[in-house]
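Quick one - first record:
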Amino acid sequence: MSDKSRATFISGLSFSTSLATMIINPVIGAVIQKYGIINMLIAVSLITVMIIVTAYLLIMRTNKNQNKK
């Protein structure tokens, strides 16, 4: 990969991150104003725990399937 291609990719990645932040931050602010920060922290924590447990279970299922082969 040439330097120009790498710089273009990094620039595009930076732009994508900035764009996502500009879109998501006002939405998060509106949701926090409507429901309160404590409720949002609880909701985000519960969602995070559910995602971690789901990922763990999927990883364990994949490992069992690979060990059977």
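second record:
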Amino acid sequence: MNRDAASDPRRLGVPREVVDEGARTLRHAVESLDAFVRSLTEGTAVGGMSPADAV
């Protein structure tokens, strides 16, 4: 058995609801991180100090 198959949630018997919730949580985390990085490139940090305030 290859390494990927050994960690496949379907083979491990993980309930589909748990896998779906984990995937949903990761999608939200990616969206939040993307928004934060975008805000940095635009010069206004979300929920943080802007570069103008750092002076």
